[in-house]
Request: fold
Amino acid sequence: MDVTTLKKLRDWFRKNAAELPWRPADLDAPRDPYAVWISETMLQQTQVATVREYFIRWMKRFPDVETLAKASEEEVFKYWQGLGYYSRARNILKTAKAVTLEERSSDRVHKKTLPDSRKELEALPGIGAYTAGAILSFAYHQREAILDGNLVRIFSRLYALDFLPTESRDAAEIYWDYAREVADSPKAYMHNEALMELGRTVCKVKNPDCTNCPLRNACRAALENRTDEFPPSKKHMQKDWHGTVLIVESADHKILAVHGGQKFFKNQFTLPHFESPRNATAGLPAQAERYIDADKVLSVENIGKFRHSITVHKMECDVLYILLSTKVPKRTAPDIRWVTLEKAKEFFANSFSLKALERLLHRTDKP
Ligand code: SF4
Reply:
C-alpha cells in the first residue's frame, strides 16, 4: 500500500474510530499489553458488541496479570461464561501464572506484564501469531504485522487475490507479505487497527461501502467493479500453469536473484520466471534479456522440470541454466542480487526457487 493510501487510512481512522473500552481516547498512546491480550482473546470468534460488557466486567475483577494469576479456574470461568470456547479462558489463566512465575524468579526489573518479543509471546499458552502481533503492535508499538479475517478480506479485494491464505503456505506468505508491508512503518499500530476497523465497518463481508472507503482509489476489486468476487467463497478449481525458471550463473559462480516484476513472489527475492508454452523452443528466451546481455551468454541448457503448487496454480516449470562469460557487474539495480550457490539455499525463502536450484545441484555433469 503506498504512503498516500496509508495516510488516507489513518485520517479515516482518526475520524471514525469507535469508542471501545479497550481503546484509549488517544489513538497514538501505547496500550496496556494485558488489556490488549484480554480483549483480542475475547474478540476471537466473538462480536465486538458482546465482548464490550465482558471486557469491562473482567477488567474490574482482574485489572492486571498478577491479580488474574491468583484467581481460581472456577472464578475465571465464571467471568468467561457466555463467551464460549472455554479453552481460551483456561489458557489465559495458564499464561498469567507462567508470566508471573517467571517474573518472580527473574533478576529482571519486575514488569508485571507480558513479554515484548514474538518468540516469547508465542511460547505462551493460547497466544498465536495473530494475538502476539496485536500485543507487539498495539502495546509495544513494534513494526509487527497482524492478519485476521478483516485484513484477509481487505487484501483479497485490494489486490484482487483469488485465493485464501489457508490454501497453502505460499498463499499464506503472500497475505503476510502484504500485512508486513502495512506494518513497515512507525505507525504500524494504527495501520493494523485501522484495517481491522475498516473491515468491520466498511469493507464488510456483504455489500462493502466502497463509496466511503479511504482505500477505494487503490482497490482493484472496487475499480473493476468485482467486489463480490473477493475473497473467493469456495475452493477454486486448480489452474494449470506452465512456466520457465531461469538460473543465470556468472563467471564468478553467482546466481541471479530478482525482486518484483515476477508472476509469483512479488515481495521477495526469487529466481526470474515467466509463463511459457510447453515444449518452448530452445535458446535464450527474450524475457532473459531483461536481466542479462545476450552477447555475454556462453550457454543455455534446459536442465529439467519440476512441479509445484502456488495458490490455485498447479505448475510445471522448465529450468533453463544460463552460463555467462562475465563476472557479476560492479553496479546492479536495487531489485537484483547475485548470490553464491552455497548461500542461495538460505537466501531464497520460497520453495519454488529452491526446487529449481535442486535441478542444478543434482545435475551430474555440472562443470
Ligand atoms: S474500496 Fe470497497 S472493496 Fe475495496 S477495500 Fe474499500 S470497501 Fe473494501
Remarks:
- The beta strands are 239-249, 254-259, 269-270, 273-275, 297-310, 313-324, 336-340.
- The first strand starts at residue 239 and ends at 249.
